[in-house]
Amino acid sequence: MCHVILTCWSMLWTILSIVVAFTELIAFMSADWLIGKAKPSSSEDVDNRTGGSQEPYHPTLGIYGRCTRISHMQLSRRDTLCGPYAENFNEIASGFWQATAVFLALGIMILCTMAFVSVFTMCVQSIMKKSIFNVCGLLQGIAGLFLILGLILYPAGWGCQKVTSYCGPYASAYKLGDCSLGWAFYTAIGGTILTFICAVFSAQAEIATSSDQVEEEIEEGKNLICLL
């Protein structure tokens, strides 16, 4: 018989698992990992409303995508275009970034799977006498290790030609040159930290859902057990 068990720890773990998966996915897909040096406006780059020159803009570069400003032939209008610069895996800027993409993708796939599974732990707490919370926590810890490896390898690729075109000739491995780190990199770091917190919360969720109070409620024949 299926017992729906809700506790503070299990709900917190489920919500955080979903948040972490989406956080890492959004960061990975973003082009705002590196913010390039400012590109000065040209003499034709004029704001049609004010008649003044537009402010310099900062192109951004992600693991496989980028955002830059393109000009239109008419009215000297400028738009920001974002999209992948690499049409396939081999066109990613450097071998280090290819490794980063692999490790981050593996970590995110595990996190998304665990986020999906976490929703069903309200009804199913074990499979083949193994606690789902413990298994998910272990896999989240492994995903966190993949994310760490990806984030460590990422700065090693800053010396590639693609990065130097954005950050200047002084950019090299673990040296940004004229660039700065964008929000996506910091978001990925924050998501990695939360991944390990999720792994810890899974153990607390296991303790909460297997407590004596829950067992007493099950013995009383209750199918919905809410200990919030």
From TrEMBL:
User: Which Pfam families does its entry note?
Assistant: L_HMGIC_fpl
Residues crossing the lipid bilayer are: 12-35, 96-120, 132-154, 183-203
Where is the signal peptide, in residue numbers? 1-21
Its membrane topology is listed as: Multi-pass membrane protein
Q: Where in the cell is it found?
A: Membrane
Keyword annotations for this protein, in alphabetical order, are: Fertilization, Membrane, Signal, Transmembrane, Transmembrane helix
Membrane among the record's keywords?
yes
GO terms classed as biological process: single fertilization
- Note the superkingdom of the native organism: Eukaryota
Assigned GO CC terms? membrane
Q: What is its main location?
A: membrane
Q: Where, if anywhere, are coiled coils annotated?
A: none
Which InterPro entries does the annotation name?
LHFPL
User: What PANTHER family does the record point to?
Assistant: LHFPL TETRASPAN SUBFAMILY MEMBER 2 PROTEIN, LIPOMA HMGIC FUSION PARTNER-LIKE PROTEIN
Question: What family, per the record?
Answer: Belongs to the LHFP family.
Task: From the Swiss-Prot or TrEMBL record, give the protein name.
Answer: LHPL2 protein
Native species: Scopus umbretta
**Lineage of this protein's species?**
Eukaryota, Metazoa, Chordata, Craniata, Vertebrata
Q: Which gene encodes it?
A: Lhfpl2_1
